[in-house]
Amino acid sequence: MQKKALGRGLESLIPALSVNKPAGGEAVITINLSKIKPNRFQPRKNFNKAKLQELADSIKTHGLAQPILVTPSIAPGEYEIIAGERRFRACKIAGMKDIKAIVKQGTGDKQKFDLALIENLQREDLDPVEEAKAFKRLIEEFNHTHEEIAAVIGKDRSVITNTLRLLNLPEDVQILITEGKISAGHGRMLAGVEDEAQLRALVEQILSDKLSVRAVEQLAAEMKPKKIKKGNEVPKKQEIELIHLKEEIQRKLGTKANISGNSKKGKIEIFYYSLEDLERIARELNFKV
Asked: 62 Cβ partners below 8 Å, 6+ apart?
């Protein structure tokens, strides 16, 4: 259902894109590539060179299947891309001098950003972090609400909210998501881990043991600080030391641990969630496996 709604999004805002002939009084014209500038509000920052080359080769062989969408620039005779920057870049790689384009008049900055975002989402051209940053810009620069963004792109409001949570992660963890080394699902679970040492230990565990999102969700839930129960009792020094020791064990091993007992005797519990997880913990403890 989401894909169906999203598939209609750009066409409903730009009728000319849904057919091969001009619509709404907007003509398809030929423009010199040197007269076209990229969209200042382009949410996509990473363009895969190999895929651009594939598209360029296809354009050389079969031509451009769909015109790009542009709007007149401030500079006379020049244009700014609204949708189709990937096709524009591929045409330049293919050595073309001109490109077919639909010129849309009177497009404001907000609409330029909206349309560029929708096109990228339709073509699945944005990685999860770029998508989150685009949503953030819509909120901060154009005063969109989560509900408005959801309506425009055809997704549930919770998707917008959960995607934005990725921006709470450290930048190097965001890069891992952009590079596809961990998934957006992993990232959303990691965003709920408040302690950075625990978060980084969990990231290492995801990379080394290829943990599922479900496994990460369970581990992240166990790392959340427990709510203080009734009463205002101050923990004893020994209890504080045990708490700190438990936290250090959890940080070191990247998993849940419990310590119970007193100064004379007690027990330590270390939790694992798969055979691979157990083997990893054993290696951390310098046991032969």
From this structure: none
**Whole-angstrom distance, CA of residue 243 vs CA of residue 254:** 16
Contacts of 21 by beta carbon, 8 Å cutoff, 6+ apart: 28
**At residue 65, what are phi and psi to the nearest 5 degrees?**
-75, -30
Question: How far apart are alpha carbons 260 and 269 in whole angstroms?
Answer: 9
Q: Residue 85 catalytic?
A: yes
Calpha distance 224→219 (Å, rounded): 9
Indicate the helix (H) or strand (E) that contains 200.
helix 196-209
Query: Of 80, 85, 119, 131, which is the active-site residue?
Result: 85
Element (H, E) at 261: strand 257-261
Mean pLDDT per 10-residue section of the chain, whose length is 289 residues: 37 36 61 86 68 85 83 84 84 91 71 60 69 82 79 77 91 92 92 88 91 88 65 56 75 77 80 75 75
What are 89's two structure tokens?
A: 């870049």
The DSSP bridge partners found for residue 95 are none
